[in-house]
Amino acid sequence: MHASQGRSVGLGLALVSAFAFGGSGVAAKPLIEAGLDPLHVVWLRVTGAALVMLPVAWRHRRLVLRRPALLAGFGLLAVAGVQACYFASISRIPVGVALLVEYLAPALVLGWVRFVQRRPVSRAAAVGVVLAVGGLACVVEVWSGLSFDAVGLLLALGAACCQVGYFVLSDQGGEGEDAADPLGVIAYGLLIGSLLLTVVARPWGMKWSVLGGSADMNGSQVPAVLLLCWIVLIATVLAYVTGVISVRRLSPQVAGVVACLEAVLATVFAWVLLGEHLSAPQMIGGAVVLTGAFIAQSTAPRAASGPVASGGPAPSEGELSAGHSAA
């Protein structure tokens, strides 16, 4: 009975995480179009979340000496890399397209397992990779000569590659007697990512006045600071924390599959809130990408999977996922 309740709670938290990560792009794009540089939006997101997570970082301060390489890699790839590439990509291409490209990450992870770690990959996982790549061809409409911005697509692919680093680091950090607490890794990843982005983004040159005004969201004026609060508190802090807890109550594979909903939610949000409509072939291709990601994620060897769901991307994004990305 308790196990069933725990899984139900875990599933609910995984859905909350996917929802939170899925909303990062639609909140960030109006800020970018209002005059903020994509890197500045990423810096605001990561730095704001890092400040919120400071108490967690202090609680796990011993991680700095125990796992410095893990924390540095997580901050560079899973936080700074994924978020910067994703936000830069959505400044040039639609949010839904960017996130669907980023969802090639599960397929790329299997490539890492097969060709770098030289471990066998199931036929079902290989089918998932083929589906994901074929679906991506529909999303970017290759038959029309890549009508999308090539730089934007490369940036989205960069977010997917950084997300691979996230998966690999999650796997390394969550095994053995010296396993790192995922919340601690997230907190220090945000802190390190913030420091790295400060050097790259140079926030002292930011158009701070944009935050005092409003941003256009498909014809509606929304306070810029409200969008920023959503990005920091909901699309980053809430998304990461609920994702981590969901992984603990579910298996990483199940939580990761639920996280695939992030791309669907992000596309729907962009359609409703930003007016970014996808064509019928793109929607079909997106469904194929997600199907391939679902198969690849659910059939991946356990050792190649870490606490995946909170990455989203993503994040998101985007994106322990903007996920995003990232998301």
Q: Determine the mean pLDDT.
A: 78
Strand order of the largest sheet: 1-2
**How does the helix and strand content classify structurally?**
mainly alpha
Q: What does the largest sheet look like?
A: 2 strands, antiparallel
Q: Give the uncertain stretches in residue-range form.
A: 302-326
Distance between the termini: 34 Å
What string gives the helices and strands in order? HHHHHHHHHHHEEHHHH
Structural description of this entry:
- The protein has 327 residues and is mostly helical.
- The protein has helices at residues 2-22, 24-33, 38-52, 54-59, 63-66, 68-90, 95-102, 105-116, 123-139, 150-173, 182-201, 224-249, 252-259, 261-274, 280-299, and strands at residues 214-217, 220-223.
- It has a two-stranded antiparallel sheet with strand order 1-2.
- The longest helix has 26 residues, at 224-249.
